[in-house]
Amino acid sequence: MGSLSTESISTVFPVNPTQEKHFPLSPFDLQLAETNYIQYVLFFQHGFANDSHEVTVERLKWSLAKVLVYFYPFAGRFVDSPDGFLNIECNDEGAQFTEEIADATLDEILLHKSPRYIQELLFPLNHSICADGRSLPLLAVQVTQLKDAVAMAFSMNHMVADGYSAWQFINSWSEISRGSLTIANPPSHHRFRAGRICTSSTTTTNQNTKVYLQSVEAAQRPPPLSHDVQETVFCFSKDMIAHLKNRINTHEKKRGTVIYSSFKALAIHIWVAITRARKLKSEDQTTLSLSVDCRGRLIPPLPKSYFGNAIHIIHMTTTVGELLNNSNIITTVNLLQENIEAAQRDERIRFKIEEWMENPNLTSFQGFANHIVIGSSPRFPVYESDFGFGPPMCVRSGGGNKYDGKVTLFPGREGSGSVDMEICLWSSVLQKLNSDAQFLLQDLNS
User: For residue 302, which of 295, 325, 326, 406 is within the disulfide window of CB 3.0 to 4.6 Å?
Assistant: First the structure.
């Protein structure tokens, strides 16, 4: 790994004091206490353009201080609340800002197979879990000067924001950094709890919630990612995505309808290919897990600008034989479709929240055999993050919440519906996937 030298570590505070002092967390947020921080990194190939490194870093700090006025939960810390949950105390303790210099090139980083390499080189607050937010910053940024590029890495407490909110924050910061006096999409800071929108005055009397803090105290920190777990980024063009969608909809087109989305077609393609590469027995079980956004599905819907977590995790399990049987592919797609539609129904979302309130627990992906988890989204506005020196050339995630079977989706750099996929697997399985002509759609590209 290239050598790394720390230039400075500082704290950035909101330019104006926060008026709201106690900020509630919803069940969507609270259940994530055992997960790692969300980690994204943007790479800017031409560095800081015409400005010097020092001038640009000061502008980034100044604009961060400005945007934290809007996104003030990121400047606070978690505290135990009387109702048995955690709240954010909006005490303006600030966000961490680190400057580093790395003896590495952009290609060396992008071509490296180990997620731990990128995590340890570019990200702050590595290996922290969300429950650590009682003492650690809820947001940490690291700007790393590479030999031929600049990396901006973000570690964000997942209990404060999901992926949608994370990119809302990043893009709003970039607006201020470019010189805007306001942001186009201010966050909505009302929280959803137990079937209603809650504000800081909302409380709960459920005695079972006292169990929650006990679970937080006992939260298990994930072990460091093994060096034998490696990662490859696969870039699927818009034509490849269109091919997958058309193939899965062949039978429906004959009836004059197209009901399966590009995302569902891609998810099934990934599930089948990884399961095939794992060389499992036909009777073995395999599970696919997805995060489903709930903002527009509640009645009334949450605003698009809702800041926090509004995701519902669904799990689908079948046998390897059933999944890999081509004649069953429509059955599998229907299983996926039905699970997503059910998870997005208002009554289902509210039922799961009420159920959680009766038995508060922490989200875990343990206990599933031959598991695949698809996270992030190709719809995130990644390439709108222009901080004043042009849009990023690419995006990657860090080692947080990475394990064998984790798939992270981003929009492709070429746009127009292309998708970049980070796929994290045991090295022997990843090697098989890298040479799988069916997965790579080589017939289409030949």
Answer: 295
Both tokens of 132, joined, read 């650590």
For residue 311, what are the β-bridge partners?
293
Q: What angle do CA 57, 420, 282 make, to 5 degrees?
A: 140
Please, is 415 exposed, middle or buried when counting C-beta atoms within 10 Å of its C-beta (0-12, 13-18, 19+)?
Answer: exposed
| Amino acid sitting at position 329 | I
Distance CA 422, CA 409 (A): 6
Q: Taking residues 123-143, what's their average pLDDT?
A: 95
C-alpha of 184 from chain center: 22
Structure tokens at 242: 């269109």
Q: What is the pLDDT of residue 203?
A: 42
Tokens of 23: 């900020």
Assess contact for 265 and 258: CB atoms under 8 A. Answer: no
Cβ atoms of 433 and 421 closer than 8 Å: no
- In angstroms, how far is the first alpha carbon of the chain from the final one? 36
How far is residue 202's CA from residue 24's CA, in Å, rounded to a whole number? 8
Here the tokens at position 429 are: 């399985």
Helices (H), 124-237: 163-177, 210-217
Using CB atoms within 10 Å of the CB of residue 256, give its burial: 0 to 12 exposed, 13 to 18 middle, 19+ buried.
exposed
At residue 39, the pLDDT reads 96
State the amino acid at position 323 in one-letter form.
L
- How is residue 388 written in tokens? 């004043």
Decide: 194 and 357 in contact? Cβ < 8 Å: yes
Helix residue ranges per DSSP H, 146-261: 163-177, 210-217, 238-248, 250-254
CA distance 95 to 138: 7
Residues with a catalytic annotation lie at 158, 386
10-14, 45-49, 83-87, 154-158, range with the lowest pLDDT: 45-49
Reduced to 3 states (helix: H, G, I; strand: E, B; else coil), residue 78 is: strand
Q: What is the rounded average pLDDT of the residues 30-43?
A: 95
Give 157's contacts (C-beta < 8 A, 6+ positions apart).
37, 38, 74, 130, 133, 138, 139
Nearest to 260 by CA among 331, 348, 345: 331
CB under 8 A, 24+ apart: contacts of 135-139:
135/77, 137/11, 137/77, 137/93, 137/94, 137/95, 137/96, 138/73, 138/74, 138/75, 138/76, 138/77, 138/78, 138/88, 138/95, 139/74, 139/75, 139/95, 139/96
- Helical spans, DSSP H, in 259-359: 262-277, 320-324, 329-343, 346-358
- How many other CB atoms sit within 10 Å of the CB of residue 80? 15
Backbone angles phi, psi at 160, to 5 degrees: -90, -35
- In order of 23, 267, 311, 327, the CA distances from 19 in angstroms are 11, 43, 28, 60
Q: What is the dihedral of CA 135, 118, 380, 69, to 10 degrees?
A: 30
